[in-house]
Every structure is written in structure tokens, then in C-alpha cells.
Amino acid sequence: MNYMQLSFNTELYFIYIIAFILVILEQFIKRKYIEIILYFFCVFIILFTAFRDPVSDTIMYTDVFNQMPDIWNLINGESLILDKFPLELGYLYLNSIVQFIVSAPQLLFFIIATISISAYYFLFRKYSPYIALSFFIYLSLLYIFREIVQIRNGVACALVLYSVKFLYEQKIKKYILIILIAASFHLTAVVGFSFYFINKILWTRKKILLVLFFGLIVTQIEWIYQVMEILGNMGLLYYRIAKYQGDVVAQQEVTLVKYLLYCFILAYVGLNNWGNRTKGSLENLLLGILVFGVLIQGSFHEFRELADRISSLFYTVLFLLIPIYLKYTRWKYIILIAILIILPFYFYRTVQWIYNPLQ
Questions:
Q1: 15 three-class SS
Q2: How far is CA 262 from the centre of its chain?
Q3: Is the CB of residue 65 less than 8 Å from the CB of residue 98?
Q4: Exposed/middle/buried for 338, CB within 10 Å: 0-12, 13-18, 19+?
Q5: pLDDT digits over 95-142, tens only?
Q6: CB of 152 within 8 A of CB of 185?
Q7: Distance (Å, rounded) from C-alpha 323 to C-alpha 123?
Q8: Which residue, 71, 158, 67, 81, is CA-closest to 112?
Q9: Which residue of 53, 108, 139, 215 is 20 to 30 Å from 150, comparing CA positions?
């Protein structure tokens, strides 16, 4: 490990340790103080995310930025940028606008990090009973994968989760708008439209048991590559999937242990009686989204890249669902201690994954 990697890792661990301490402090001090501390903590994370050295996918995004045409050529279609980098238009337009202002990709990364992390902060502040815990779970499970590496999918994850606020409040036009904006950065965000229908279902124990049973069955079914062969070349959407077919990392299957962990979380939370589990409630909506995350990850098990990118749009509800569940359970401190013991190991493994994606 060279000095640059060591410095980068140290900064990541420093951020994580602060988040760890805040989870503990949250149990003893007033919420308003935690919100203020977390506000400045988020500013620090945004600055770190924007101005750190690019790694993995962000190296490619830096190249895209440096080759972007000016905004007028992009609008008039006079550039071959779409042929060379067939990315979503919202992301390309943002690149071009930033390029027009200043030829520095750090401003682009700053804007993207601000969108993603701010969306989480304001959503957690409104709906999470333990805002620091929500942030700790987010940093453990998603921050490195989405804000450090796969930044377009990171924006999609943050905005799709934020759209839950408008769906729950029955502000459907705003919900649709947020999903469309998210999809302009990463097409996988369109799965967020399924939340509308998920919200119409009352997620009883019987339905959850059925999903868990079916989810385990679909992990034995191989179908996705046959379907891709039938679809053939269908433009951008197909390209976004098919381009990974020659990628050794992408073609790995979903790790069974990881999938079973999400199944266990769904079973534990879904089969217990807690909170307001009526149709239209926030608890029922979040639980239903988790149900579909398990189904999707299991169904796409043979194509890890696709499974992870789509299921992560559903698994973000854990940032709210787990803290809300803890509010109601008498096992709060036992579960909290378990979270604080287990998740740091996952975070450590993720930091190592940056330099060795095949692990």
C-alpha cells in the first residue's frame, strides 16, 4: 500500500470513527445537538468526498469531464460524446455546465456529493428517531460504493430514497419528479416508480414468509444471460447492462452469505410486531421496499453488478427502517451493540475492496 492509499484509508477510518462516536453520544444528549453536529459532519464529508483523489470509477468520470464539449455543442448534438460515453443526459449536462464554469472536476464531484449527502441528512432528520445511527448505517453499507466509486448510482440511490418522503406524504407529482431527476443520472432509478405500487400493499407476515421462500428459490434459477441474448442490442439501456459482460468483477455471482443476511434482516424485522404496520404507513412502505430489494437481489443473483446496483436502491430503506424498529423494540441496546460490533468489519472490508474488487 503506497502513501496516498494509506492517507486516503486513514481519512475514511477517521470519518467512520466520528460516526461511531456520534451513535453513542446520541443515546445521552439532546437530539437538537446531534442534528447540529451532524450538519457540520456532513459538510466535512461532502468536502472530503469532493476533493479526495479519484479512485476506481471516478478516474473514468474525471476523463469524461475533461473531454466534455461546451453546453451548446451538447445541446445541438454536435459532439460524439454520447457515442464515446453513452451516459445519462442529466449527468452529461451537469458535466458540461460545470465545465463551462471551471475546468475542474472537483466542482462536479462537490455538487454530486452535496446532492447525495444532503438528501440523506434532511430525510434522516425528518423521519429517523436516531439520526446518527442512520448515518452510521449509511456510511457502513453504501457510502464507499456509491459516493466514492459509483457516483452516478450514488445520486440515484439518495434521490430515490428521498422520493419516499413525497410518496408517504402523498405528494405524487414531487415523487415522480424526484425519480425522473434520479434517472437522468442513472437509469436504474426508474425502479423507484415501483414504490408507488408497493405502498398499496399491506405487508403481512404471511406475505413476507412467501417472499422469503420465493427469494431462496430464485437464487437457483439462471435466466438473465438468456434474456439478454433475446433482447439483443437495444441502445442505451441494453448497453448499460451488456457492457459488463466482459467484466470479471461484474460477472461474479451475488455472495450467498450477503444475500442471506438481508433475508435474515427482512425476516427479523418483518415477522415481528412493532410500530404502525397499516397500509399507507411509513413502516409498511419501508418494509415493502425491503421485500422487493430481497426479491431483486435474489432474482439477479448470477449478475452481481446488476443485482447490487438495483437492489441497493431498495436496501437504502434500512437507513430508516432499522432505527425506526429500534424505537419500538425492547431489545434496542442489544441490537445497537450488535450493529456497532458487526458493521465496522463490513466497513473495513469495503475499504479493502476499493483496491481489490475481486475479493
A1: helix
A2: 15
A3: yes
A4: exposed
A5: 989 988 888 899 999 999 999 999 999 999 999 999 999 999 999 999
A6: yes
A7: 13
A8: 158
A9: 215
3-state SS, residue 306: helix
Q: Is-contact 248 305, C-beta < 8 A?
A: no
The whole-angstrom separation of Cα 51 and Cα 105 is 9
| 3-state secondary structure labels for all residues of 75-136 | HCCCCCHHHHCCCCHHHHHHHHHHHHHCCCHHHHHHHHHHHHHHHHHHHHHHHCCCHHHHHH
User: What is the crossing angle of helices 256-270 and 318-328, to 10°?
Assistant: 40
**Rounded to 10 degrees, what is the CA torsion of 299, 158, 180, 310?**
-10
Q: What is the pTM (predicted TM-score) of this model?
A: 0.92
Residues in the chain: 359
Question: 220 is written with which cell numbers?
Answer: 437457483
Q: How many angstroms separate the CA atoms of 313 and 305, rounded?
A: 13
For 175-204, the pLDDT digits (tens) are 999 999 999 999 999 999 999 999 999 999
Chain centroid, CA 59 distance in Å: 20
Largest CA distance in the chain: 62
